[in-house]
Amino acid sequence: MTLSFADTDAPSTALHLLTPDDLPAWRQRHSAEVSSWMERIGFTGALGQAALVPDGEGAIAVAGYGTPEKRARGRFHLASAAKSLPDGVYHLETDLPANELVEAVLGWLLAAYTYDRYKPTTRSGGARLKAPDGLDTKRILTVAESEAFTRDLINTPANDMGPEELEEAACALFDEYGGTHEVTRGDDLLAAKFPLIHAVGRASPRAPRLVDLRWGETGPALTLVGKGVCFDTGGLNLKPGGSMGLMKKDMGGAATVLGLARSIMALKLPLRLRVLIPAVENAVSGAAFRPQDVLTSRKGLTVEVNNTDAEGRLVLADALALAAEEAPDCLISMATLTGAARVAVGPDLAPFFTDDESIASALSQSGARVADPVWRLPFHTPYEALVEPAIADLDNAPKGGMAGAITAALFLRRFAEGAPSYTHFDIYGWQPTAAPARPVGGVGQGARAILDALPDVLGL
Question: Where does the signal sequence lie (predicted)?
């Protein structure tokens, strides 16, 4: 599967993006034949409505596509045109504002995404788009390719995407862009003081590991931490079958930070990037960690395990503690962490937590600008007491179920102390129903908002 623009020299058909209000003036600017044809086929410019005007030889002379006057419900509306128009090359004729045009073009590219590792597709050439003038199309294509990279990682089932395969994909990515990597595996995690990562992953025959990747030598320091639980059975607190069905996506945080890292490196942003991925499989065996175990973290804080299915925050804790030791200018974690976040905001929004007002503002504005919706939830300090059990410093699964996304974020914040700025994203990483440019399956969330916000966040 290749995402690309059509060759700039290829003959192309004009695709006019029209609203109902645009249509009367547009018809007046065209010939009577075109205007009459549009009227005859009932084209009104309604959202998603396509119109094809033939020339005298049966080819397409003009194409129209209904677009919203303002950003309507949903995103990437033009992706539907890319899927429904006849094969051929098109160029856009539109007065859309620049940010909406970028969204339209990105959606067109992502409409070509398919996951075909196990079932190759036999698609024809499809509708191809020429890169519009005046846009940074290299950046748009990079973002689309990075999103496809993230989706491929999430969509790959756990039998082919375990800790070792996730490590290989991450290291190969950084090799491609001249980065470096260091990996700590198996029992070496104990000697290197990553006891929580080891505890969560030790029950699986597929050794747990911490993947430490770096790129860039100058500029501000950005560290990304991604949850890499390649499959989550729930451990001894075994998930029911219905809840286990999507757990190949529990490494969606790792996949998303790797996609973001790919964009950063491909665009050669002037910063020092570090990516930390604790990669494990939360399995069941005689070696599994148990409810009521008390574990000592890298930071020295003790953690009472009250649910082995709250393992993501444990592996992130050791990785965040390592990240904070360097005090990077900006520390961001991403994880498919809690069902409570989905209850709060649903699958389409990426909630984030931060105490940094400037980062919160930048992320919110960028999310709206690039159609990557994010929503701030609070680090509500009074709830700290909920993550403090009687016999240890911290509780990995407070009883009662109240404010589950917040208490998980507060747990993580304890391990990020020392970093000047910490932001946590609790993403879903999955598209449950097909939507324009987003088939059912793995999906990145928050990465485009972060990428757009980095100039403000880091002063690039």
Answer: none
